[in-house]
C-alpha cells in the first residue's frame, strides 16, 4: 500500500491488445515542473520508449538480429552442404 504519494503517470494503450493492455510510465517530478515541457512532448517520448522496447525485445529474429537476407543465405548454404554431402556418399 502506498500512502501520501502523488505521481504523474502516462498510460500508453496498446494497438494490439492480444499481447499488452497498456504501458505505464511514471513522470519525474522535475520533468513535469520544467517550463516549456508540454504534455504532448512527454506523451510522444513515452510512446517512443515503448515502441523502441518492443522493437528491440521482440524482434522477429530473436536475440540474433541479423538481416533476413543473411538468414536466407545461411539456410541456402546449409541446404547446399547437406545436398553435397548426400550426393558424394
Structural summary, described in words:
By secondary structure, the protein is of the alpha+beta class. The chain has helices spanning 29-32, 39-57, 68-88, and strands at residues 8-13, 22-27. It has three helices and two strands; from the N terminus they run ββααα. 49% of the residues lie in helices and 13% in strands. Strands 1-2 form a two-stranded antiparallel sheet. The N and C termini lie far apart (70 Å). It is rod-shaped, with a radius of gyration of 23 Å. The chain has one domain (8-88).
Summed up, what is this model?
The protein is an alpha+beta fold and 89 residues long. It has three helices and two strands, in the order ββααα. The termini are far apart.
SSE order and pairing:
Blueprint: E1 8-13, E2 22-27, H1 29-32, H2 39-57, H3 68-88
Antiparallel strand pairs: 1-2
> In percent, how much strand structure appears in the residues?
5-15%
Q: Stretches where pLDDT falls below 50 for ≥5 residues?
A: none
Strand order of the largest sheet: 1-2
Number of strands: 2
Shape label: rod-shaped
Overall number of domains: 1
Which oligomeric state applies? single chain
Amino acid at each position: 500500500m502506498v500512502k501520501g504519494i502523488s505521481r504523474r503517470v502516462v498510460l500508453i494503450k496498446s494497438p494490439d491488445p492480444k499481447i499488452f493492455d497498456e504501458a505505464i510510465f511514471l513522470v519525474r517530478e522535475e520533468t513535469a515542473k520544467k517550463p516549456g515541457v508540454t504534455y504532448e512532448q512527454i506523451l510522444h517520448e513515452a510512446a517512443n520508449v515503448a515502441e523502441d522496447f518492443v522493437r528491440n525485445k521482440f524482434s522477429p529474429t530473436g536475440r540474433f538480429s541479423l538481416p533476413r537476407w543473411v538468414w536466407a543465405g545461411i539456410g541456402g548454404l546449409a541446404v547446399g552442404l547437406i545436398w553435397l554431402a548426400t550426393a558424394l556418399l
